[in-house]
Design goal:
With 94 residues, this protein is mainly alpha-helical. The protein has one domain. Helix 1 packs antiparallel against helix 2 and helix 1 packs across helix 4. The longest helix is centred in the C-terminal third of the chain and has 23 residues. It is elongated and about 70 Å long.
């Protein structure tokens, strides 16, 4: 092994701040990235770097899929107009 060969540095595991960011990124309506970074006590640039991490992307995708599945199930249960109104209000759409 040559002296100039760089060792691959092991990245730290995702922590509570990462999972908070994931939760905020999957809320509807999604807060802006400045607000999410502030809630996680990190700089906005750090949040951008987190979003490039493969492990962060994997957990973000899982969270999005869980929430989509949950909403699809809820939508399939709707039988009344009032239920639609409730969902649209909860999503901040009306």
């Amino acid at each position: 092994m040559g002296a100039n060969k760089k060792r691959k540095r092991r990245r730290a595991e995702l922590d509570d701040r990462h999972y908070l960011a994931i939760e905020l990124l999957t809320t509807v309506p999604t807060p802006n990235l400045d607000d999410i970074a502030r809630h996680c006590y990190v700089d906005r640039r750090t949040l951008y770097r987190w979003r490039l991490r493969k492990d962060f992307q994997r957990e973000l995708t899982k969270a999005q899929e869980r929430k989509h599945k949950h909403f699809r199930l809820k939508l399939s249960e709707i039988r009344r107009v009032e239920d639609f109104e409730f969902i649209f209000r909860a999503a901040g759409l009306i």
